[in-house]
Design goal:
This protein is about 35% helix and about 20% strand. With about 600 residues, it is of the alpha+beta class. Strands 2, 3, 6, 7, 10, 20 and 21 form a seven-stranded mixed beta sheet that branches. The chain has a five-stranded antiparallel beta sheet with strand order 12-11-25-24-23, with helices on both faces. The protein has a three-stranded antiparallel beta sheet with strand order 1-8-9. The radius of gyration is 37 Å and the shape is elongated.
Length: about 600
């Protein structure tokens, strides 16, 4: 028989278990309420009380590489270390290697004071410990509720990691990108640079920002009152790195051309100089060197005008380098051949009153079309050009690219000029036959000779090979379609005449390269004074050509702005020969298998 005494303990046990179960159920219900039912509300409350922290995850700006994959521009991250003075002044609980609290003999947590922590920080940052202590002490003295000061700025990755390894809950980090250019000034005028905030300011950095730019991500997490991150609260949105930009430029060739143009520009005391190397079959630019230049690592060390590309932003009257366009026009139109003859005085007054002079006095002579190019006679080319009407000549200049941009979409590229025929006066009617009264850029001149070297087909000039995005997608630039400007037969005849310019003209001894047939032309253009006239005795000189002329591979253009030591295009002979020699050597171009056939110069 069960007595009252034996039932009482059981009842108490049941009651106790019921109470415990009720507490557990209440706890679970509350936990479900906090973490599931009203989780968003609780998170919102936490955010309103400043318990949620959001950090930016910086994406990395893409690299710029040359045609062979050599890195020309890359990114690294620098870090700002931020400290919460209000938390830092309280110190932290000491923990052992396993993360457990260290306690004293009384069982109380051992605290590490701010003064002691400052010593640890100073050992990592290699700063004076008193200066570190002052960051927090001075901040709290000024405002006991101060929650933000910089502990350090622009820390390297190694410095950031060393400081982060201290695992201080009151220290956080913000990464920001920094750009580095491992080859210094190589292609600096093309690459451009970025500002201290990472914004692109010049060159391809600006032009191709859509390819190179990264998309930042973020990470959100909760912190307790002591600043320690609450496990399991992190929500991350990954960053997306920028794409890799591949150029057509060959860094090794670019380096050589920059050294060469710097030496030659100084030698002839020019204001600036430049070299373009273009592949004839593709229009790809393999080098675009100029001086003065800029080191993108330190753009402030260069004058503002030297930080961009003059080869892409300077337009000029091309002068005699465009005489072959007149030759191509009359041959293509069937009104002349390389052997057609005109009578050429050194000065001629035309029926419309225009007066054209040759650059040097000479006796009246009979010159073929080839002879007009070989002697670079303005009077001869004016007569040949007049064999077709003005509109026809305009149309050919237009097809060769005059009045259009280079197709490179370069920021700041000037609008080249080609006035409509109804605006041509008596003088312009003739001066357009020898490269005056319209303007071009250096790239456009190189493209004209690429067209002749490529059998009359103009290929779009290009600097960018491709953009490879972070997910591996490769995008190539949208370029103009190849365009036939003149027939293959006309291009071959003009090319042979340009060979004769080198073999029979004044250039023969100065620029010949053993074993290679070459074709090309010099140009000495008057420089505008900005007032509708020209600067006296100052010229923009150029020499452009291609080799081997019997199987053209590369076009080389050299320019000087206002050379003082030798004012005519003869200043360009040395730099052209050295540049072309290097190109042929660098690309291991086979020599020509024959000699240049000589064409008649005089009738």
């Amino acid at each position: 028989m069960t007595t009252r005494a034996t039932r009482s303990p059981r009842r108490r046990t049941v009651v106790a278990l019921a109470v415990v179960l009720a507490v557990l159920v209440a706890f679970v219900i509350r936990l479900v309420d906090i973490q599931i039912v009203n989780a968003s509300q609780h998170m919102a409350d936490a955010r309103s009380k400043g318990m949620e922290t959001t950090s930016t995850l910086k994406g990395t700006r893409g690299d710029i590489v040359d045609a062979n994959g050599v890195t020309l521009a890359s990114s690294t991250l620098l870090y700002d270390a931020k400290i919460d003075p209000m938390l830092a002044i309280e110190g932290i609980n000491d923990r052992d290697a396993e993360g457990a609290l260290v306690r004293d003999e009384n069982g109380d947590p051992v605290r590490i004071t701010w003064d002691e922590l400052a010593v640890r920080i100073a050992e990592v940052t290699e700063e004076d410990v008193e200066e570190v202590r002052a960051i927090v002490n001075d901040a709290i003295a000024a405002d006991p509720a101060d929650r933000f000061e910089y502990l350090g700025r622009y820390l390297t990755t190694a410095e950031f990691r060393a400081l982060a390894d201290l695992e201080l809950p009151f220290v956080s980090f913000e990464a920001h990108p920094a750009r580095t250019y491992p080859n210094g000034a190589v292609a600096g005028n093309l690459l451009g640079f970025v500002g201290s905030d990472g914004a692109p300011l010049e060159g391809l950095e600006e032009l191709q920002h859509s390819c190179l730019s990264a998309t930042d991500g973020s990470i959100r997490y909760m912190r307790g009152a002591d600043g320690v991150t609450i496990p399991g609260t992190a929500v991350e949105e990954p960053a997306v790195d920028g794409g890799s930009l591949a150029l057509t430029i060959d860094a090794d060739l670019q380096w050589y051309m920059q050294q060469l143009i710097a030496e030659e520009t100084d030698r002839y005391k020019a204001d600036w100089g430049g070299i373009i190397v273009m592949e004839t079959a593709t229009g790809k630019i393999r080098a675009m060197a100029e001086t003065p230049t800029v080191d993108p690592n330190d753009p402030g060390a260069s004058e503002p005008d030297d930080r961009g590309s003059r080869l892409l932003r300077y337009s000029y009257e091309p002068g005699s380098t465009f005489k072959p366009v007149t030759a191509a026009t009359v041959i293509e139109e069937g009104v002349a051949t390389p052997d057609t003859v005109v009578r050429v005085p050194d000065r001629k007054v035309f029926d419309n009153g225009a007066v054209i002079n040759d650059s040097e006095d000479h006796a009246t002579e009979d010159l073929t079309l080839t002879g007009g190019l070989v002697t670079s006679s303005n009077v001869a080319m004016s007569q040949f050009g007049a064999m077709v009407d003005a509109q026809t000549r305009y149309d050919y200049l237009d097809k060769f690219g005059v009045g259009h941009d280079s197709g490179l979409n370069w920021a700041g590229e000037p609008a080249t000029t080609l006035h409509p025929v109804d605006q041509w006066d008596s003088q312009t009617y003739y001066t357009t036959t020898f490269g005056q009264a319209f303007t071009v850029t250096a790239v456009q001149v190189a493209s004209v000779y690429q067209t002749f070297a490529n059998g009359g087909v103009k290929m779009p000039a290009s600097l960018v090979e491709s953009c490879t995005s972070d997910d591996g997608t490769v995008t190539t630039p949208e370029l103009a379609e190849p365009e036939r400007v003149v027939s293959e037969e006309t291009a071959e005849e003009v090319s042979l005449m340009l060979e004769n310019v080198f073999t029979q003209g004044t250039l023969a001894d100065d620029i010949a390269i053993d074993g290679y047939r070459m074709a090309g032309k010099t140009g000495t253009a008057q420089v505008s004074d900005g007032k509708g006239g020209y600067k006296p005795n100052l010229y923009f000189t150029s020499l452009v050509g291609y080799a081997p002329a019997d199987d053209p591979q590369y076009v080389v253009l050299t320019v000087f702005d206002e050379p003082k030591k030798q004012r005519m295009s003869s200043a360009n002979r040395s730099v052209f020969k050295k540049a072309m020699t290097q190109v042929l050597t660098h690309y291991r171009v086979m020599p020509s298998g024959s000699e240049t056939p000589l064409l008649p110069v005089n009738g």
